Amino acid sequence: MTFMAIRHTGRRVPRTGRTFPALRTFRLRHAALPGAVLAAALALTACGGGSGDTSSAGHSAHGNGSTGRPSATAPAGQGKHNAQDVTFAQEMIPHHRQAVEMAALAPSRARSPQVKDLAVQIRQAQDPEIETMTGWLKAWGAGVPSAGPSGMPGMPGMDHSASGSASGHPGSGHSASPMPGMMTDTDMVELTELSGDAFDRAFLRMMIGHHEGAVAMARTEQAEGADRAAVALAKSVTTSQSAEIDRMRKLLGGR
Q: What angle do helix axes 113-140 and 228-253 make, rounded to 10 degrees?
């Protein structure tokens, strides 16, 4: 057995390699202390975060923390919206559906590769936008237009009795179109009966008018809408479809 000298006392304590129970308990308690302090600090932080004003909690999911205003990328249906936002979605959905229907004719009827490429781009852009706007209407508790013939909306209260054709031939005796730029059933039948260069020319003329109608609707939404995401989509429609109008006019000018 060896002995270790303890200063100032003159006593010798045997070193046996054993840890006395009291000393072991002391060490365990002090080793656990940092973890306990950390847990207490986290608990205080959590309590402090929840003790503030909860009136702004609804903004935090889709807003700027410093202002409480929704961000530009906030999903529609969760924030402030008005009747114009609902109208925009309810009218743009069938408008887009008809554009997609027209574009679906191009692969088998168009001759121009540029027209075929344009049709593909229209479908790729507008199909997802239809899904997005459908989700908004469901979130808002508003009716979703059912697909009618040639993309016409099948919702009560939508007026189909206006005279003229959205293809730029007012008073032509064609069936009515409820939104700017919409083709009539007669227009669509005529388009399906064409092929080659004749289809390309008719498709470009009709789609230019269709896009112009969409841009007009989108500008109304930008001016009068309240939902930030809906207004952002309207701006995107204005920009993208205005560019496509210019592109189609150039293609049509060479025919």
A: 160
- Please give the Cα distance from 90 to 83 (Å, whole number): 11
The residue extents of the domains of the chain are 83-253
CA gap 145, 172 in Å, rounded: 27
Q: Which of the four pLDDT bands, split at 50, 70 and 90, describes residue 147?
A: confident
Check pLDDT > 90 for residue 198.
Answer: yes
| Sign of the four-CA dihedral 216, 219, 224, 230 | positive
β pairing state of 12-15 and 2-5: antiparallel
Mean pLDDT throughout 135-142? 97
Instruction: State the virtual CA torsion across 149, 150, 156, 159 in degrees, nearest 10.
Output: -120
pTM of the model: 0.63
Mean pLDDT value of segment 156-170:
37
CATH number of 83-253: 1.20.1260.10
